[in-house]
Design brief:
It is a single chain. Helices cover about 55% and strands about 10% of the residues. The chain has 10 helices and 4 strands; from the N terminus they run E-H-E-H-E-E-H-H-H-H-H-H-H-H. Strand 3 and strand 4 (about 70) form a beta hairpin. The relative contact order is 0.14.
Length: about 250
């Protein structure tokens, strides 16, 4: 296995914790750099050199040629990490195997489906300047549809994971979003197999360690406290809407 020189640039979001959980599951050493998105650190020039899109997470490492390589987009980062460092296939399958392609199926299902749709549900339900019922219903219903796909698939899984007989990056990619379902106004209790999977994932030491990077993961606790949840939504709404205005310039 190559020696890692990994620097992770991240924030406490569903996309951010995908990568820290992957790193913890692989037991890889890495340095964490908190990118405070509320202060627009992700828009600073030094960060744009790593990710021109100005989004977290991002990662740098020393590549086989001895030069720095940059990685951005969470799925790309996760694939890089298992290809470079998971020779024992702890959270992956051998490249070219039937199972490896099935992992890709579910990884892209998350990146093209669950993440974007639930992200829009979060926005219209929680942060939009005005309540637009069509937007809320459209994205909540699509999130529920995607959750039903996952729930049905997991109900048939003999291992309790998405692919084969173990946890893979496909599971890790989904977990941060599914555990935050309540932020989109989606009730995880509607999906019993998915809820059991969420709890199974949380029991993993690597998930427990990785979800608290770069700060404590407190989504469930916040959602249980109506007053704190309301305050957090108001605080985040202000910088999110300001960010939209800035991006439109």
């Amino acid at each position: 296995m190559p020696v890692s020189d990994i620097n992770l640039y991240t924030e406490q979001t569903p996309n951010g914790i995908k990568v820290s959980i992957t790193l913890e599951e692989l037991n890889l050493p890495y340095k964490t750099h908190h990118v405070d998105i509320r202060k627009n650190v992700q828009k600073e020039s030094w960060f744009l050199d790593i990710n021109p899109n100005g989004r977290i997470p991002a990662l740098t490492d020393t590549f086989a040629d001895g030069k720095t390589i940059r990685l951005f987009e969470s799925g790309s980062i996760m694939q890089y990490l298992v290809e470079q460092y998971d020779q024992d296939n702890l959270i992956s399958y051998p490249q070219g195997s039937r199972e490896s392609y099935e992992v890709n199926n579910w990884l892209y299902f998350l990146n093209a489906g669950v993440g974007p749709m639930q992200g829009q549900a979060n926005h219209f339900f929680r942060y939009a300047a005005e309540k637009i019922e069509y937007g809320i219903n459209r994205y909540q219903n699509e999130t529920r549809r995607l959750y039903r796909v996952l729930d049905e698939h997991l109900s048939k899984s003999t291992s309790g994971y998405l692919v084969g007989n173990k946890c893979t990056i496909a599971d890790i990619a989904h977990w941060g979003w599914v555990t935050a379902a309540g932020m989109a106004g989606v009730d995880i209790n509607e999906f019993p197999s998915l809820k059991a999977w969420e709890e199974r994932m949380l029991a993993r030491p690597g998930v427990e360690r990785g979800r608290h990077v770069p700060s404590p993961h407190q989504v469930k606790e916040m959602l249980k406290n109506k007053e704190e949840n309301k305050k957090a939504a108001k605080r985040d709404r202000e910088w999110i809407l300001q960010g939209q205005r800035d991006d439109a310039k």
